[in-house]
């Protein structure tokens, strides 16, 4: 188990609390991070679920997770509500309703682990904002969620969930795997932190740019260029989060240079695409969550 971050305040005379529990991911690199969360007495709000180079798997331990592509959808009758959330790679924020109280476990999955953990390539998740977990994992996932809800200790929950995922991986060994060229292409992008060129990548895996892009997209749902931008943005966002968590103001010009952006304006443009707001507006919106440990999901691991 990793560190536990808690934040307790008072709202309208009622104690409000937030708890984030981070667990070391199981070996193998399929699960990038695992975070348990519980909040109580919070003012209802709308949270931006930002694009990242990871897939999302959430088991709610409370009511359904409510999401939408826009604030209006998330808070309206067309909102998506599910107790188990599976999310693919996406290029714009997903809006998540944060009720007065909620609890769950959120996993960040490596996109090339989708076949082993979810039973399908990540590309099959790109058509929808989120997918009901039982549609992907089967009805047994509902039983897993019920067992997680019955347990009181975070350590027991993570151990039970890891055992369930390990069984899925063992069952998937008989199924087809990811093409080695695609696996190496993702590893190359991760090593370069999204700053490499498509020409350099295609030469590295000995495929034409067109062939590589087709294979890569068929597996992940995004092109190599889109994946590179997601990886680069993840590193930039992580640097912003670390600066804010240390009670400092992020130096965006330095972060842009360190993360391979042309300049500060280039970073701001990517931030606006992936968050719908400027970096400073996002920091102001998420400052309390960051300081409470709510942005630790995958921050310290390579893509």
Automatic annotation (TrEMBL):
<keyword id="KW-0804">Transcription</keyword>
<dbReference type="InterPro" id="IPR009057">
    <property type="entry name" value="Homeodomain-like_sf"/>
</dbReference>
<dbReference type="InterPro" id="IPR050204">
    <property type="entry name" value="AraC_XylS_family_regulators"/>
</dbReference>
<keyword id="KW-0805">Transcription regulation</keyword>
<dbReference type="Pfam" id="PF12833">
    <property type="entry name" value="HTH_18"/>
</dbReference>
<keyword id="KW-0238">DNA-binding</keyword>
<feature type="domain" description="HTH araC/xylS-type">
    <location>
        <begin position="197"/>
        <end position="285"/>
    </location>
</feature>
<dbReference type="InterPro" id="IPR018060">
    <property type="entry name" value="HTH_AraC"/>
</dbReference>
<protein>
    <submittedName>
        <fullName>AraC family transcriptional regulator</fullName>
    </submittedName>
</protein>
């Amino acid at each position: 188990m990793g560190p536990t971050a808690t934040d307790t305040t008072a709202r309208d005379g009622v104690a409000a609390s937030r708890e984030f529990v981070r667990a070391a991911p199981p070996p193998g690199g399929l699960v990038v991070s695992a975070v348990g969360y519980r909040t109580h007495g919070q003012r209802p709000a709308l949270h931006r679920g930002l694009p990242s180079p990871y897939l999302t798997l959430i088991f709610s331990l409370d009511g359904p997770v409510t999401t939408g592509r826009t604030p209006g959808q998330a808070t309206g009758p067309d909102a998506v509500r599910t107790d188990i959330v599976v999310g693919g790679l996406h290029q714009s924020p997903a809006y998540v309703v944060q009720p007065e109280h909620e609890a769950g476990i959120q996993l960040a999955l490596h996109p090339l682990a989708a076949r082993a953990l979810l039973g399908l390539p990540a590309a099959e998740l790109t058509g929808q904002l989120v997918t009901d977990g039982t549609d992907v994992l089967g009805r047994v996932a509902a039983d897993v969620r019920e067992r997680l809800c019955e347990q009181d200790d975070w350590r027991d929950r993570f151990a039970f969930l890891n055992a369930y995922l390990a069984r899925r991986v063992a069952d998937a060994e008989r199924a087809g795997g990811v093409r080695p060229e695609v696996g190496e292409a993702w590893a190359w992008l991760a090593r370069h932190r999204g700053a490499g060129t498509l020409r350099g990548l295609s030469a590295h895996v000995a495929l034409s740019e067109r062939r590589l892009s087709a294979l890569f997209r068929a597996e992940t749902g995004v092109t190599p260029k889109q994946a590179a931008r997601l990886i680069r943005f993840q590193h930039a966002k992580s640097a912003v989060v670390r600066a804010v968590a240390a009670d400092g103001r992020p130096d965006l010009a330095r972060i842009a240079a360190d993360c391979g952006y042309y300049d500060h304006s280039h970073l701001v443009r990517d931030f606006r695409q992936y968050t719908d707001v400027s970096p400073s507006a996002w920091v102001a919106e998420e400052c309390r969550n960051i300081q409470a440990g709510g942005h630790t999901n995958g921050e310290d691991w390579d893509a």
